[in-house]
Design brief:
The complex is a heterotrimer. Chain A is an all-alpha fold. Chain A has helices at about 10-35, 45-55, 55-85, 90-115. Chain B has two domains: about 20-90, 3 helical TM bundles of succinate and fumarate reductases; about 100-135, no CATH class. Chain B has a two-stranded antiparallel ribbon. Helices cover about 70% and strands about 5% of the residues of chain B. The chains are: A mainly alpha, B mainly alpha, C alpha+beta. Chains A and C meet through α1 and α3 of A and α5 and α9 of C.
């Protein structure tokens, strides 16, 4: 039994904030852009309007926060899914690097894509 | 009462193996694994969202290409599945929130159902604002 | 209602067999008989070699935890008629090494339990005559967690414990919270090293089955989740605030 304090509380906080933000925002966004517009249930917004929404600094800030927290949410949960679901805890070092490293790289890509839209 | 302790010498213990498919043994374990897998679809959503933003900021033609891609049946199927998982994530997430949060008003503990209802209320309000901004 | 029900009982007699086997027994099916009564009938009338633990027969002692038709149950409060026409499969609790038949080895829990100091820790030695006053509202904070009878059904239901035996586990964490949330206790900081370790609350992925199977409605999953929030806010404070201001 280890009694050493761990970095877990910080990744858990990122995971939890990500869980809350994605639960609030992702269903409606995915419904609109993934299902409703493609299937013609609702008319897709025209380009000029969407471009003005997307280039707004507040939109970009919200989307950046959403992307970063969603990616860390994925990283944390996926790590434990591999540990428990596939019993891969013996490979915890490469799994940890892959998951959180992936979230960092994804966040950088998100920053580049979003800054481009400014 | 029987204890099964042998007299003299420790008999070997039997250690039941944990099967790789332990999560199929019980419906709530399966639901747990599905809930955990929702994170993969959240990662997919981030990719999809960034593709959308990239397309919109690249101009009208790129946006139209994105709309065509998003109407591809395979992409629609993927997004319908992803939506189901994301809703599963939201429902289970809000369901667990009252377990971690203990709020007090004076000496009284806010009932878990109120915390749960507040989360669903916030979900509704946030979704309405997002839909209004996009569809206006 | 049929007159008998078949009980399929998991057998492991280390002096005879290295792999477990099943034995089937027909026992009278009576509406007031629990699975434990069936086992007692087998032991008394049919096969005296069967080994299992039991004591109070009323859901208080926590001795008779078993796996009944795949689910962790107290065999004294699980009725045979609920499984009619049968068969009823009785196995030892999962996630524990088996000593013999339905008797499991719980030494691991016994070793972990004192690590979370499940007793009132006080800063100073009180007078012998001191009363510890507590209001009903203060008692409500921890009362639920104090109902634990150490039956181990929560460990038996926990896949994280199955996969990672170092996990301190549901009951031990719920018991730590039982004292952490007690207004008379001053041991939260002592318990934190163990609870906030990687093998403490952070190992839990909130499957939630521990709370489902608990016969005393202790809700260990809620206790763990609540402590995660406590531990995380403490960790942030440790990081941000100078030592004196915590």
């Amino acid at each position: 039994m280890t009694t050493k304090r761990s970095p877990e509380p910080f990744v858990w906080l990122l995971f939890s904030s990500g869980g809350m933000v994605t639960a609030l925002l992702v269903p409606v966004l995915l419904f609109l852009f993934g299902v409703a517009f493609p299937l013609g249930l609702l008319p897709a917004p025209d380009h000029a309007y969407l471009a003005s929404v997307v280039s707004h600094p507040i939109t970009l800030l919200v989307l950046f926060g959403l992307c970063v927290l969603a990616l860390f949410h994925w990283a944390h949960r996926f790590r434990y899914t591999l540990y428990d679901g596939l019993q891969l805890k013996k490979y915890s070092v490469p799994i940890t690097i892959f998951c959180y490293g992936g979230a960092v790289v994804g966040s950088i890509i998100a920053a580049i894509v979003l800054l481009r839209a400014l | 009462m029987s204890t099964g302790n042998a007299v003299g010498g420790e008999p070997p213990l039997y250690r039941p193996p944990v099967s790789l498919t332990w999560w199929l043994r019980n419906p709530s374990y399966l639901l747990f694994v599905l809930r955990e897998l929702s994170c993969v679809f959240i990662a997919w959503f981030v990719v999809y969202l960034l593709m959308l933003v990239y397309a919109v900021s690249s101009g009208r033609a790129a946006y139209q290409e994105f709309l065509d891609l998003s109407a591809n049946p395979l992409v629609v199927i993927l997004n319908v599945i992803a939506l189901a998982f994301v809703v599963l994530h939201a429902v289970t997430w809000f369901g667990l929130a009252p377990k971690a949060m203990v709020l007090r008003l004076g000496a009284l503990r806010v009932p878990p159902t109120v915390i749960l209802a507040a989360h669903y209320g916030a979900w509704l309000v946030v979704s309405a604002i997002v839909a209004w901004v996009i569809l206006r | 209602m049929p007159e008998t029900i078949t009980m399929e009982v998991w057998r492991y007699r280390p002096e005879h067999e290295s792999e477990p086997t099943w034995d089937a027994y027909d026992v009278p099916l009576r509406k007031e008989w629990a699975v434990l009564d069936g086992l007692n009938h087998i032991k008394d009338q049919l096969d005296g070699t069967l080994s299992y633990r039991w004591s109070c027969r009323m859901g208080i002692c926590g001795s008779c935890g078993m796996t009944v038709n795949g689910e962790p149950k107290l065999s004294c409060s699980t009725f045979l008629t609920d499984y009619a026409p049968g068969p009823v499969r009785v196995e030892p609790m999962r996630n524990f090494p088996v000593i013999r038949d339905l008797v499991v080895e719980m030494g691991d829990f016994m070793a972990k339990l004192p690590a979370v100091k499940p007793w009132l820790v006080s800063d100073d030695e009180p007078d012998e005559d001191t009363e510890y006053l507590q209001t009903p509202v203060e008692m409500d904070d921890y009362k639920r967690y104090s109902m634990c009878i150490n039956c181990m059904l929560c460990y038996s239901a926990c896949p994280v414990y199955a996969l990672d035996p170092d996990f301190i586990g549901p009951a031990a964490i719920a018991l730590a919270q039982r004292y952490n949330l007690d207004s008379r206790d001053a041991g939260a900081e002592d318990r934190r090293d163990v609870l906030a370790s990687a093998e403490g609350v952070w190992a839990c992925t909130f499957v939630g089955e521990c709370s489902v199977v608990c016969p005393k409605d202790v809700d260990p999953a809620g206790a763990i989740q609540r402590y995660k929030l406590t531990a995380a806010s403490k960790a942030v404070k440790d990081l941000l605030l100078p030592r004196g201001a915590r």
